[in-house]
């Protein structure tokens, strides 16, 4: 899964029930299961019925678009092993092991599959989500045979004998190396321009799922914030979030850092307790039909200091400047530059001194995916690209402030999926 214990969240979320007030400073165990949830979390409603899965017709259009990009890039085919891109094009969820299972999209003609002989039945029972699944060619190999030679055979059967074969970026090296040796007529190249070229531009159906994921995360965060209080361990706050996601019906998680540890962008393993008047920083999201949200909120239970207030306002202005710069046609690096200028002009520069990371990342079926809002990335933004917008100021030994919302690029600038944070004491006010 993604960063910071996201897999752990599904285990917590399945049954964690948290006592009102969470007096015990620990993650709830099975003894808590029969206790009442805090009112703000108990009031949450299950929203699974709102999620409309991606259709087979849309996956077929994705394969067609990949073929268009293959021709533009002068590639003969694109090979996908297990991973997110395989799910994107086929709906097949398949992990990578030492045995290669691959889906190959030729620039022209029908796609095909290479899989172990003993896995053929398992592959075929899942072909209902694969474009052309009823007639797709499946090449199988025995344990003493080379799967890589079958890639060459499949391409030859499609009328392709030489050319450039794009390999999706997450494909294990051992597969790419084996194919290169078994297919001497083919030049192995990076398939990212095709795979990311498709995935970066979101369809209306994808945007609807992402919008729902973000709305759910916003709702869950607000419920947990209302239930939280000083004296609570940060692990218990994360458990509140997990319990809230369980109520709404989607797997999710939030890391929680407080005090000096909020100055570490991805947190600390040190046990922490939320104190009155200290900064609290929460981050992460959920998945809806495979599509991610990623939201950060910074707040204080009590009265923030003047310095905390000032830092928050600077970060908020930087986030707004980045959103306004996220116009189709602008370079990705210009969005990072817009936010970084606000932070530097306010005296928290230069450069990466306190704003220590890029402005944002692409988001969709992976929490971090192509392309990135970072200096040096001259990729022009296009309408319906989706990104996180997450500037931060991190003052080592004091505190950190980060505000993060996800947005979709439009000709007029970024459009957030969720309302921007209002203040340190009212982070969810609209």
UniProtKB/TrEMBL annotation:
It comes from the Bacteria. SUPFAM superfamilies: Creatinase/aminopeptidase, Creatinase/prolidase N-terminal domain. Residues 209-410 form the Peptidase M24 domain. InterPro entries: Creatin/AminoP/Spt16_N, Creatinase/aminopeptidase-like, Creatinase_N, Pept_M24, Peptidase_M24B. Residues 62-201 form the Creatinase N-terminal domain. This is M24 family metallopeptidase.
């Amino acid at each position: 899964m993604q960063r910071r214990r996201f897999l752990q969240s599904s285990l917590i979320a399945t049954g964690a029930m948290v006592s009102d007030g969470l007096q015990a400073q620990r993650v709830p165990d099975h003894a808590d299961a029969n206790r009442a949830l805090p009112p703000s979390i108990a009031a949450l409603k299950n929203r699974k019925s709102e999620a409309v899965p991606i259709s087979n017709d849309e996956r077929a259009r994705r394969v067609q678009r990949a073929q268009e990009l293959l021709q533009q890039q002068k590639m003969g085919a694109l090979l996908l092993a297990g991973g997110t891109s395989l799910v994107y094009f086929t709906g097949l969820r398949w992990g990578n092991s030492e045995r290669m299972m691959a889906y190959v999209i030729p620039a022209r003609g029908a796609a095909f599959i290479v899989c172990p002989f003993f896995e053929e039945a398992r592959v075929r029972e899942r072909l209902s989500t694969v474009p052309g699944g009823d007639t797709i060619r499946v090449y199988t190999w025995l344990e003493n045979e080379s799967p890589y030679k079958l890639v060459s055979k499949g391409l030859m059967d499609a009328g392709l004998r030489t050319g450039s074969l794009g390999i999706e970026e997450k494909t294990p090296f051992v597969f790419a190396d084996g194919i290169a040796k078994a297919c001497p007529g083919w030049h192995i190249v990076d398939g990212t321009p095709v795979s990311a070229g498709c995935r970066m531009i979101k369809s209306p159906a994808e945007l609807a799922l992402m919008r729902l994921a973000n709305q759910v995360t916003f709702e869950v965060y607000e419920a947990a914030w209302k239930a939280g209080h000083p004296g609570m361990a940060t692990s218990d706050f994360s458990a509140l979030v997990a319990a809230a996601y369980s109520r709404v019906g989607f797997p999710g998680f939030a890391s929680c850092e407080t005090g000096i540890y909020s100055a570490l962008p991805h947190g600390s393993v040190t046990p922490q307790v939320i104190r009155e008047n200290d900064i609290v920083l929460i981050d992460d999201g959920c998945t809806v039909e495979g599509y991610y949200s990623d939201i950060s909120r910074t707040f204080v239970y009590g009265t923030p200091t003047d310095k905390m207030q000032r830092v928050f306002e600077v970060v908020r202005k930087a986030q707004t400047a980045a959103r306004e710069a996220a116009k189709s046609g602008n370079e990705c690096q210009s969005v990072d530059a817009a936010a970084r200028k606000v932070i530097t002009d306010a005296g928290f520069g230069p450069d990466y001194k306190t704003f220590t990371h890029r402005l944002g990342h692409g988001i969709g079926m992976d929490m971090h995916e192509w392309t990135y809002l970072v200096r040096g990335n001259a990729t022009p933004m296009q309408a319906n690209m989706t990104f996180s917008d997450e500037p931060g100021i991190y003052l080592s030994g004091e505190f950190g402030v980060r505000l993060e919302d996800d947005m979709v690029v439009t000709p007029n600038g970024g459009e957030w999926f969720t309302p921007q944070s209002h203040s340190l004491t009212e982070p969810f006010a609209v």
